[in-house]
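Subject: Interface between my chains keeps coming out wrong

I've been trying for a while to get a sensible model of this assembly. When I model each chain on its own everything looks fine, but I need the whole thing in one frame so I can look at the contacts. Pasting all components below, labels as-is. Any help appreciated, I'm running out of ideas.
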Amino acid sequence: MEFQEVAKKRRTIRRYKQVQVLDKDLTNMIDTARRVSCGANVQLLRYIVIQNKNIVKDVFETTAWGGFVTPRRTPEFGKNAPLTFIAVTALGDSTEIIHANAGAAIQAMQYAAWDVGLGCCWIGAFNKQKASEILEIPTESTLLYLLAVGYPDEAPVQDDIDMSGSAKYYLDDNDVLHVPKYKVESITEWR
Amino acid sequence: MEFQEVAKKRRTIRRYKQVQVLDKDLTNMIDTARRVSCGANVQLLRYIVIQNKNIVKDVFETTAWGGFVTPRRTPEFGKNAPLTFIAVTALGDSTEIIHANAGAAIQAMQYAAWDVGLGCCWIGAFNKQKASEILEIPTESTLLYLLAVGYPDEAPVQDDIDMSGSAKYYLDDNDVLHVPKYKVESITEWR
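Reply #2:
Try treating it as a single job with all components included. I did that and got this:
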């Protein structure tokens, strides 16, 4: 798919078809992530692909979903929850720069997923201590984020808004999720 | 360009042709950035496009470039330095999550740039206090990163390495920059 099409159409997905994601697509997502920019090229990010049903369930139970559209966009395990997570961890402590690196890597993975028909949800709201225990993250590493991956079972849309509009996402009468985003001119200055 | 081509070929650029970047390409970069994932969709990132020669020069003087390949990849102003910067700022304080959001937005901008033949350098190593003064960043905001943007005047390459290899980037005898990146299997666990 053309980059611009991926970038314009990609949206966060919170409901998934119960179809297993292919290993090669997951490998390709991480292959995309490893190529992104990284301060001093130190490459401290590591990835755990979670597909074992019991571990997926345990990890899923540590997560919170779409605060403004609860409970309708809180997936149900076995019905529309993701079958795969990618955990993003860092060697060492949680620092601002490693979070920036993780953000870049996760955005890259989301594009690579969308490019082959997969959707993702980048999850920062989860019980990190519990998830770290489930995943047996060694003490010298830090679990930063989870990325849910799967085939989309919803089709959210983006609404463009001015600075005066509300950025709160919402479900309309047809159960379609609307995600308001500020227009370029609202968030850009030229010097 | 196909997403996979952008993702595989994009590299950080530290030498630029002295050709002005088009406003429409810069607008499109920020249009791409505003669409990325953002925790709770709060959208606290703002962008300052810097093209005025005096301000570009002042900002350039606050930056440090490619520590491992100094001085050969430190651009000279007026010769091969960028003619444009995009400053990424946040409403509010510097937090881990805003750095993650900024990383995602900056990676998106880098892909959008590469898609139209432009290269970027994501700069975290700069005098933030001085650059904030130059850009008159209000006290309630935080300057997070700079992104240099311009037409590439070098062609760096990626080398794939195992975990035992050195991740230190280097210049070869032909003045080509090599960027070693760990292979997927070195950084991935499957559960």
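Reply #3:
Confirming on my end. The longest strand of chain B covers residues 141-150.
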